[in-house]
Protein backbone atom coordinates (compact mmCIF):
# COMPACT_ATOMS: atom_id res chain seq x y z
CA UNK A 1 0.00 0.00 0.00
CA UNK A 2 2.93 2.36 0.64
CA UNK A 3 3.71 2.06 -3.09
CA UNK A 4 0.77 4.42 -3.60
CA UNK A 5 2.89 7.30 -2.27
CA UNK A 6 5.46 6.87 -5.05
CA UNK A 7 3.01 6.88 -7.95
CA UNK A 8 1.29 9.64 -9.91
CA UNK A 9 -2.12 8.78 -8.38
CA UNK A 10 -0.44 8.86 -4.97
CA UNK A 11 0.96 12.34 -5.60
CA UNK A 12 -2.48 13.52 -6.69
CA UNK A 13 -3.97 12.05 -3.50
CA UNK A 14 -1.34 13.81 -1.36
CA UNK A 15 -2.01 17.20 -2.97
CA UNK A 16 -5.74 16.66 -2.58
CA UNK A 17 -5.70 15.87 1.14
CA UNK A 18 -3.19 18.68 1.80
CA UNK A 19 -5.50 21.26 0.17
CA UNK A 20 -8.55 19.74 1.87
CA UNK A 21 -6.84 19.98 5.27
CA UNK A 22 -6.07 23.66 4.67
CA UNK A 23 -9.70 24.40 3.75
CA UNK A 24 -10.96 22.47 6.78
CA UNK A 25 -8.72 24.46 9.10
CA UNK A 26 -9.77 27.80 7.61
CA UNK A 27 -13.54 27.26 7.48
CA UNK A 28 -14.40 24.40 9.85
CA UNK A 29 -15.79 22.31 6.99
CA UNK A 30 -14.94 21.30 3.44
CA UNK A 31 -12.46 18.43 3.87
CA UNK A 32 -14.79 15.80 2.43
CA UNK A 33 -16.33 18.23 -0.05
CA UNK A 34 -12.99 18.65 -1.79
CA UNK A 35 -11.26 15.35 -1.09
CA UNK A 36 -14.06 12.78 -1.42
CA UNK A 37 -14.91 13.20 -5.12
CA UNK A 38 -11.27 13.56 -6.18
CA UNK A 39 -10.04 10.59 -4.14
CA UNK A 40 -12.95 8.51 -5.41
CA UNK A 41 -11.63 9.12 -8.94
CA UNK A 42 -8.05 8.28 -7.91
CA UNK A 43 -9.06 5.12 -6.03
CA UNK A 44 -12.66 4.22 -5.04
CA UNK A 45 -11.28 2.42 -1.99
CA UNK A 46 -10.95 5.82 -0.27
CA UNK A 47 -14.75 6.29 -0.10
CA UNK A 48 -16.57 6.29 2.26
CA UNK A 49 -14.56 4.62 5.05
CA UNK A 50 -11.07 6.09 4.73
CA UNK A 51 -12.52 9.53 3.96
CA UNK A 52 -14.66 9.56 7.10
CA UNK A 53 -11.74 8.42 9.25
CA UNK A 54 -9.43 11.13 7.85
CA UNK A 55 -12.01 13.90 8.16
CA UNK A 56 -12.78 12.90 11.75
CA UNK A 57 -9.11 12.91 12.73
CA UNK A 58 -8.43 16.29 11.07
CA UNK A 59 -11.26 17.87 13.08
CA UNK A 60 -9.76 16.90 16.45
CA UNK A 61 -7.05 19.58 16.50
CA UNK A 62 -9.37 22.34 15.35
CA UNK A 63 -12.05 21.46 17.88
CA UNK A 64 -9.49 21.62 20.70
CA UNK A 65 -7.80 24.76 19.35
CA UNK A 66 -11.02 26.81 19.24
CA UNK A 67 -13.02 25.02 21.95
CA UNK A 68 -13.79 28.32 23.69
CA UNK A 69 -15.97 29.35 20.72
CA UNK A 70 -17.93 26.09 20.39
CA UNK A 71 -21.70 26.59 20.73
CA UNK A 72 -22.25 23.56 22.94
CA UNK A 73 -26.04 23.89 23.04
CA UNK A 74 -26.10 23.74 19.22
CA UNK A 75 -24.08 20.54 19.20
CA UNK A 76 -26.64 18.57 21.19
CA UNK A 77 -29.47 19.12 18.69
CA UNK A 78 -27.26 18.54 15.63
CA UNK A 79 -25.60 15.40 16.99
CA UNK A 80 -28.94 13.88 17.97
CA UNK A 81 -29.99 14.16 14.33
CA UNK A 82 -26.63 12.78 13.20
CA UNK A 83 -26.90 9.76 15.49
CA UNK A 84 -30.37 8.82 14.24
CA UNK A 85 -29.44 9.32 10.58
CA UNK A 86 -26.12 7.44 10.80
CA UNK A 87 -27.78 4.34 12.23
CA UNK A 88 -30.47 4.38 9.54
CA UNK A 89 -27.93 5.07 6.79
CA UNK A 90 -25.75 2.13 7.85
CA UNK A 91 -28.79 -0.14 7.44
CA UNK A 92 -29.80 1.38 4.09
CA UNK A 93 -26.37 1.59 2.45
CA UNK A 94 -26.68 -1.77 0.74
CA UNK A 95 -30.30 -1.39 -0.35
CA UNK A 96 -29.96 1.35 -2.97
CA UNK A 97 -27.42 2.34 -5.58
CA UNK A 98 -24.91 5.01 -4.44
CA UNK A 99 -26.05 7.01 -7.49
CA UNK A 100 -29.56 7.30 -6.05
CA UNK A 101 -28.24 8.79 -2.82
CA UNK A 102 -25.86 11.13 -4.66
CA UNK A 103 -28.64 12.46 -6.90
CA UNK A 104 -31.07 13.01 -4.03
CA UNK A 105 -28.59 14.80 -1.78
CA UNK A 106 -27.12 16.84 -4.63
CA UNK A 107 -30.55 18.21 -5.53
CA UNK A 108 -31.35 18.87 -1.85
CA UNK A 109 -28.16 20.90 -1.35
CA UNK A 110 -28.74 22.93 -4.53
CA UNK A 111 -32.27 23.72 -3.32
CA UNK A 112 -30.87 24.93 0.01
CA UNK A 113 -28.37 27.17 -1.81
CA UNK A 114 -31.12 28.64 -4.00
CA UNK A 115 -33.22 29.37 -0.91
CA UNK A 116 -30.23 31.07 0.71
CA UNK A 117 -29.65 33.26 -2.36
CA UNK A 118 -33.34 34.18 -2.49
CA UNK A 119 -32.91 36.38 0.57
CA UNK A 120 -34.25 34.00 3.20
CA UNK A 121 -32.03 34.43 6.24
CA UNK A 122 -31.04 31.07 7.71
CA UNK A 123 -29.85 31.14 11.31
CA UNK A 124 -29.15 28.30 13.77
CA UNK A 125 -32.16 27.14 15.79
CA UNK A 126 -32.83 23.84 17.61
CA UNK A 127 -35.17 22.56 14.89
CA UNK A 128 -32.89 23.62 12.01
CA UNK A 129 -29.85 22.14 13.72
CA UNK A 130 -31.63 18.84 14.31
CA UNK A 131 -32.81 18.74 10.69
CA UNK A 132 -29.35 19.66 9.38
CA UNK A 133 -27.84 16.97 11.60
CA UNK A 134 -30.25 14.41 10.14
CA UNK A 135 -29.47 15.28 6.53
CA UNK A 136 -25.75 15.63 7.25
CA UNK A 137 -25.74 12.23 8.94
CA UNK A 138 -27.31 10.55 5.93
CA UNK A 139 -25.08 12.37 3.45
CA UNK A 140 -21.87 11.87 5.39
CA UNK A 141 -22.43 8.19 6.10
CA UNK A 142 -23.63 7.28 2.60
CA UNK A 143 -21.55 9.56 0.36
CA UNK A 144 -18.71 10.94 2.58
CA UNK A 145 -19.95 14.49 1.87
CA UNK A 146 -21.99 15.65 4.84
CA UNK A 147 -20.93 19.26 5.41
CA UNK A 148 -23.35 21.33 3.26
CA UNK A 149 -26.48 21.11 5.49
CA UNK A 150 -24.61 22.21 8.63
CA UNK A 151 -22.59 24.85 6.79
CA UNK A 152 -25.74 26.37 5.30
CA UNK A 153 -27.36 26.65 8.73
CA UNK A 154 -24.28 28.52 10.01
CA UNK A 155 -23.70 30.71 6.94
CA UNK A 156 -24.80 33.89 8.77
CA UNK A 157 -23.18 33.07 12.11
CA UNK A 158 -20.00 34.65 13.46
CA UNK A 159 -16.97 33.10 11.69
CA UNK A 160 -15.28 31.86 14.86
CA UNK A 161 -18.49 30.33 16.22
CA UNK A 162 -19.20 28.63 12.88
CA UNK A 163 -15.69 27.29 12.46
CA UNK A 164 -15.30 25.99 16.02
CA UNK A 165 -18.76 24.45 16.27
CA UNK A 166 -18.53 22.75 12.88
CA UNK A 167 -15.14 21.25 13.73
CA UNK A 168 -16.53 19.85 16.99
CA UNK A 169 -19.65 18.61 15.19
CA UNK A 170 -17.73 16.87 12.41
CA UNK A 171 -15.38 15.23 14.89
CA UNK A 172 -18.19 13.81 17.02
CA UNK A 173 -20.39 13.16 13.99
CA UNK A 174 -17.55 11.39 12.21
CA UNK A 175 -17.05 9.08 15.17
CA UNK A 176 -20.76 8.26 15.06
CA UNK A 177 -20.71 7.51 11.31
CA UNK A 178 -17.52 5.44 11.49
CA UNK A 179 -18.96 3.41 14.38
CA UNK A 180 -22.24 2.87 12.52
CA UNK A 181 -20.46 1.68 9.36
CA UNK A 182 -18.12 -0.53 11.39
CA UNK A 183 -21.10 -2.13 13.13
CA UNK A 184 -22.63 -2.81 9.71
CA UNK A 185 -19.37 -4.35 8.45
CA UNK A 186 -18.70 -1.50 5.99
CA UNK A 187 -15.34 -0.35 7.41
CA UNK A 188 -12.28 -2.57 7.81
CA UNK A 189 -8.52 -2.53 8.30
CA UNK A 190 -7.88 -1.38 4.71
CA UNK A 191 -9.84 1.82 5.38
CA UNK A 192 -7.82 2.58 8.52
CA UNK A 193 -4.55 1.81 6.70
CA UNK A 194 -5.42 4.16 3.80
CA UNK A 195 -6.42 6.89 6.24
CA UNK A 196 -3.19 6.49 8.25
CA UNK A 197 -1.17 6.74 5.02
CA UNK A 198 -2.73 10.07 4.01
CA UNK A 199 -3.30 11.72 7.38
CA UNK A 200 0.19 13.28 7.76
CA UNK A 201 -0.43 15.29 4.58
CA UNK A 202 -3.92 16.30 5.70
CA UNK A 203 -2.52 17.53 9.03
CA UNK A 204 0.22 19.45 7.18
CA UNK A 205 -2.46 21.29 5.20
CA UNK A 206 -4.40 21.98 8.39
CA UNK A 207 -1.32 23.58 9.95
CA UNK A 208 -1.02 25.91 6.94
CA UNK A 209 -4.59 27.22 7.26
CA UNK A 210 -3.85 30.35 9.30
CA UNK A 211 -4.11 32.75 6.33
CA UNK A 212 -7.49 31.30 5.37
CA UNK A 213 -8.77 31.69 8.94
CA UNK A 214 -7.87 35.38 8.95
CA UNK A 215 -9.76 35.87 5.68
CA UNK A 216 -12.83 34.16 7.12
CA UNK A 217 -12.70 36.29 10.24
CA UNK A 218 -12.96 39.40 8.05
CA UNK A 219 -16.49 38.43 7.10
CA UNK A 220 -16.01 36.31 3.99
CA UNK A 221 -18.04 33.41 5.35
CA UNK A 222 -21.31 33.30 3.44
CA UNK A 223 -19.89 33.42 -0.12
CA UNK A 224 -17.45 30.62 0.74
CA UNK A 225 -20.20 28.48 2.26
CA UNK A 226 -22.52 28.92 -0.73
CA UNK A 227 -19.74 28.37 -3.29
CA UNK A 228 -18.38 25.23 -1.65
CA UNK A 229 -21.88 23.84 -1.04
CA UNK A 230 -22.83 24.41 -4.68
CA UNK A 231 -19.64 22.74 -5.88
CA UNK A 232 -20.31 19.81 -3.58
CA UNK A 233 -23.87 19.43 -4.92
CA UNK A 234 -22.65 19.50 -8.53
CA UNK A 235 -20.05 16.83 -7.72
CA UNK A 236 -22.76 14.63 -6.20
CA UNK A 237 -24.98 15.08 -9.26
CA UNK A 238 -22.08 14.38 -11.62
CA UNK A 239 -21.33 11.21 -9.66
CA UNK A 240 -24.99 10.19 -9.89
CA UNK A 241 -25.41 10.69 -13.62
CA UNK A 242 -21.92 9.83 -14.87
Question: Would you write up a description of this structure?
Answer:
The protein is mainly α and 242 residues long. It has one domain. The chain contains 11 helices and no strands. Helix 6 packs antiparallel against helix 7. It is globular, with a radius of gyration of 16 Å. The model has no long low-confidence stretch (mean pLDDT 84).
First-residue to last-residue Cα separation: 28 Å
Tell me the Rg in angstroms: 16 Å
Q: Give the H and E element order.
A: HHHHHHHHHHH
Number of strands: 0
* Proportion in β-strands: under 5%
Mean pLDDT: 84
Largest sheet: none
* Count of folded domains: 1
Ranges where pLDDT stays below 50 over 5 or more residues in a row are: none
Kindly state the percentage of residues in helix: over 70%
Tally of individual helices:
11
Kindly name the structural category.
mainly alpha
Amino acid sequence: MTDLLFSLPGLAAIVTVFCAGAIQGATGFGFNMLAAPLLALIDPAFVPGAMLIMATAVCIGGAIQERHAVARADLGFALLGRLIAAMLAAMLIGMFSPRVFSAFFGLAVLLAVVLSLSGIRITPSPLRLFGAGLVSGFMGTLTSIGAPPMALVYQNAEPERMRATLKAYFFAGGVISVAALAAAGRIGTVDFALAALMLPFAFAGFLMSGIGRRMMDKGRVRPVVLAVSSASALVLLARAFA
